[in-house]
Amino acid sequence: xxxxxxxxxxxxxxxxxxxxxxxxxxxxxxxxxxxxxxxxxxxxxxxxxxxxxxxxxxxxxxxxxxxxxxxxxxxxxxxxxxxxxxxxxxxxxxxxxxxxxxxxxxxxxxxxxxxxxxxxxxxxxxxxxxxxxxxxxxxxxxxxxxxxxxxxxxxxxxxxxxxxxxx
Length: 167
Hints:
single chain; mainly alpha; Bromodomain-like; two-stranded antiparallel sheet; 7 helices; about 70% helix; elongated
């Protein structure tokens, strides 16, 4: 059954997954639950959007052969980097309370006052705000859920890269 899925349909599925993830974050978590995204959450969203953009381009381009593998590799790269950020976020949430880094300034403040490279470094390190678990579903925090999403996306992309395409 999986062999019968066209590459374009798989990329469309990846695009829909990214759209649903962003709508969930923006509408449900931010608007409905009134949760503010921490810097690591915002970084993870960047990589969800990145894989979504690569998937959208693949859907529109509808390449053949190696083109499918290139787009799948780009989507996988975005998901792997996003997964690494989510993994760091999960790690911060599981630190003992006395080892949690101090809370830092807001992302907006850092972007306005610090050089971009320093802001990026501070964001990727995370802070005390990132260590708080604000909401769970089925016992999983938001970063844990996001990590699962990145892993699933990476697996789909890897499958898309190694699969045989119908002639």
